[in-house]
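Handoff note, outgoing to incoming analyst
You'll be picking up this chain. Sequence as last confirmed:
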Amino acid sequence: MIVDLSSTPGLVPAEIDGTSMKAQLEIIDQGKLRALVLCNPRRRNALSLAMMNSLLEALAEAASEKLSALILTSTGSTFSAGADLTDINGTLDDLKFDETLEFVKQSIETFPFPVIGAIEGACIGAAFDLVTSCDMLLVAEGAYFQIPAARLGLLYNPSSIAKWHTRLGSSLLSSMLLTGNLLDAKQAVHKGLAIESVPTGKSMERAWQLAEKAAEGNPEALSVTKALLRDLDSGSFSATNWESPRRKLLGSPERRKAVIQAKSKLGIKY
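Most recent structure output, in case you need it:
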């Protein structure tokens, strides 16, 4: 099913290079920017195996192209209702769903350029796990996050819980996991989970703006910096390991050119 995205404010920029469709996923290109749009509003954009496989394929394709930034968003008033229960049967077979989601998250985390999540409405369970793999999140004022794992009789992925524990703290995460309490947009920004809250219907418009700013950066510097941040998040950071990439960038022709341009703008002779 192809949904008319032009009726969603800010979702499609004024000028686009083209759109294409995979299973339950819309792809929008604008220059060196790309948006991946979850597109199954009849099921509140629930994450199905088909949709996640489309995401894996789209992320692999995007990683091989010369993009500057990627946006992850959805169509409709709900970002995602979480796991699509048509692919869940309540047995150990559901590990297949978890493993597929883990592959998608790893593809986002290792994607060479910034990935921006633009969240409108509810973002529940597996969808929360998905978007917390993005480099930065924008939330609309009416957006909220929820993890109803205990109510569904399961222990959520321990590695995901460990990551959320670091980012959100024990108290807030306990309330979300043990009682199913909501985390609203204001709280998400306050806790540093999201970078800013925007009016309802405006998250995608703001995401395009941030993506354009990212596109101004040097591609190699963006990629290396993202990898460094990933090291910090994983706890495997060692300053010694990053001295060589740092020196390589410091001595690169691209950096020299950027310095010359910056000096020229300030009237400083090189």
